[in-house]
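Backbones bend. Our protein:
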Amino acid sequence: MKVKDVMVKDVETLDINSNLEDVLRNFVEKGHGSAVVTRDNVKVGIVTTWDVLEAIAEGDDLSEVKVWEVMERDLVTISPEASIREAATKMVTNVVWRLLVEEDDEIIGMVSATDILRAKMAKRY
């Protein structure tokens, strides 16, 4: 099974100057758990529910924390033609839960650990 078979194609993007309150609202309303962060339409990072959760745990006012303060700047990508085993290995090696799926320098999707686990479970039962 390949990454393209399990990836999510609807990748949310947020401006680097968004605050975490906006991020949280966006995640809840759209049911997303992450978004690619952009500056002038160029991808510069990723923000996840974990980043928001950490800010809450620290007692931060989410309306005062900007995405650029908490986002992950090292974007880990994978080809849509890669196997889900390769994706799992890349996640473990890079200690990430999501990979951006990239083709010809364009993000065409995202694959999460949950997507891979769900695919493995469906194949097994």
About this structure: The CA atoms of residues 9 and 109 lie 4 Å apart. The mean pLDDT is 92.
